[in-house]
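User: I'll paste a sequence; please echo it back and then give the predicted structure.

Assistant: Echoing your sequence first, then the prediction.
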Amino acid sequence: MYEKDGEKYFVVDGHTHFWDASPANWVPGQEQYAKGWIECFHAYQGLGPPETHWSIEDFQKYSEERMMKDLFEDGHVDVAIFQPTNLKQWYTEGFNTTEKNAALAAKHPGRFVVNTSWDPRAGDDGLRELEEAVERYGCKGAKLYTAEWRGESRGWNLKTPEAARYLEKCQELGVRNIHVHKGPTIWPLDKDAFDVSDVDFAATNFPELNFIVEHVGLPRIEDFCFMATQEPNVYAGLAVVVGGLMHARPRFFAKVMGELMFWLGEDKLIFGADYAIWEPRWQVEGFVDWNMPTGEEFSDYGQLSLTAKKKILGLNAARLYDLEVPEGLGLAADPEDSATLTETVTV
């Protein structure tokens, strides 16, 4: 829990990872891609405050102890949601897998939500693996990486019949939160494979599922906003928006937040620190302190209220994942909203 000026915030980090990109995990013959991927991630970390930068060696593989400290002791996070990214074409044991995440979550009950992942190119075998993961870990969400390489294939999209089979299976299994990476590319993946148009198609066809567009489609912020405003089940995942822009590009950050608030509103924005690219502490503290700049350039945008910040930092994600919000951390100023957000059950 984070407290500032007498206000308490329930913080849900909606986008976190526990990865291994060390050289020992690089697939022989794929070293240039495994190395380039993690170096590109590391370069993004440079967008945060200088005192938060890690060495490349620390960044490639970090310890459980460091992660727990960075998130829960120092980072003000109450619950973190694991978003797996397999990349087994480049990393022997996978980059950031459901299994590894779940093992860590089992050691720290109540701290993590374990999401799984799927790829429609895996066919029937992949559907069985999805069922097994949900049965074993109780997953309520899945992370999709439409630009991931698989053999000769360099991406897929949600418009295909193969993807529809998996979305139907998610509905059947109760995996209702579909997190789709649609943001800045990471070398060597193809930027076009992160286009947001397939989310529009899938969200219309599967209204019972929630589609959380991670990284809000950046740099396609206008395409995302105009799509998401018409789809009631599309949400904005703010990983990269806060970590990548709030410190390094403050004016652009204000514009992105202004557009998101105008088109989507405070109920559809989900905070994510994107650990370990960025640590959550400076993001949580900075976001709580942040106000929309004044002046003609920002005159179209309104200020974020205290209620909006509380929703974005944790209460919106708590609603999607049925997380129990501790007493006193809901929206006491608005009894109707508070009841909606706190009458949930523990994951």
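The two ends are 18 Å apart (CA to CA). Residues 334-347 have pLDDT under 50 and may be disordered.
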